[in-house]
Amino acid sequence: MILEMKVPSPGESITEVEIATWLVEDGDYVEKDQAIAEVDSDKATLELPAEASGTITLKAEEGDAVAVGAVVCLIDTSAEKPEGDAPKAEKKEEAPKTEISKPATPEAKTYATGSASPAAKKILAEKGMDSASISGTGKDGRVTKEDAINAVPSMGTPTGGSRGTSRSKMSMLRRKVAERLVEAKNTTAMLTTFNEVDMSPIFALRSEYKETFKTKHGVGLGFMSFFTLAVVRALKMYPAVNSMIDGKEMISYDFCDISIAVSGPKGLMVPVMRNVENLSFRGVEAEVKRLAIRARDGQITVDEMTGGTFTISNGGVFGSMLSTPIINPPQSGILGMHNIVERPVAIDGKVEIRPIMYVALSYDHRIIDGKESVGFLVAVKEALENPVEILMNNDIKKALEL
Hints:
It is built from nine helices and 18 strands. It has helices spanning 118-127, 145-150, 172-187, 200-217, 223-237, 281-296, 370-385, 387-390, 396-399, and strands spanning 2-6, 16-22, 29-30, 35-40, 45-49, 54-58, 65-67, 71-76, 190-198, 243-246, 249-252, 258-264, 267-269, 272-273, 310-314, 333-337, 340-347, 350-364. Strands 9, 12, 13, 14, 15, 16, 17 and 18 form an eight-stranded mixed β-sheet that branches.
């Protein structure tokens, strides 16, 4: 029996996906639930598991855009498993049911770095090139047919320097991010206001309580919980920042769904923490850790990145001193965190060295006025510089649930 495998829908409003990587080759024998491909949507990268055991025939190439419901491969379920055929991968941990992937999915077989597909080898041989000289874009650095086609033989220079180039197609997710960034610049009246925060009080709290906090709750007491709770307070004080434009109307929210920008294997991901106004320090830290791990492992679902009323981006983890973060449409505001540097500051007429972080608020001036934007950022600054009084109600142990 020949089974036609079709692309399942990864979520509402998604009509096509892109074959990012085939994890098997044409003619391979696959097991039921084995991951056979990684597919990109405009939201995330997901795995496609085999619906049955048998010999597979591929009907699409890497990089192809395939409509939801289209046939991407055939599986001959009457084929017998070759004798002595060792398993090609170990089982993976159970994946969320909302993703395309299914529980107990084997990992894809891997290739040695610099290896090339038969088609790629043939093309490179015609060009007089070696696969070892090409940066492969396939799984584990495997050189694909497209890599070989785009490879340009180095003509050399008088100094013997390399002049090789490579070309690779942007993933659907990366292209969608690019489109949204351009959209934000072109459709919003975006301005950015800046301030600085003396992080000494938070440093002192973390120094005294971080070990006890981690022992009690199993997560670290990081900066994100302080910033997130400071943002929630400021959003309640300045509700226009927690609003967005829909046509000729402004929609305001009585809840705070905070998007957090994290770096994943396929690029920037922006998962959402829901109803953060109800979370404690422990709750925020636990949710940040959960979403960061899922983003790192490529398990973030479309639903987890949908929505959000405000975004926090921490460029400081990469060493950024100052930036103008771009609004995440259709939201109206984004807070940029940066690195913490010891700087000389004037305290009561004397110069002292304090750990200072520059913060930036980019906002849509169409619905947020300068007074509100500056007031919002000042409110964030006040909460961060007076965390015990403003964020903990003068009861540290109760706030940290110690």
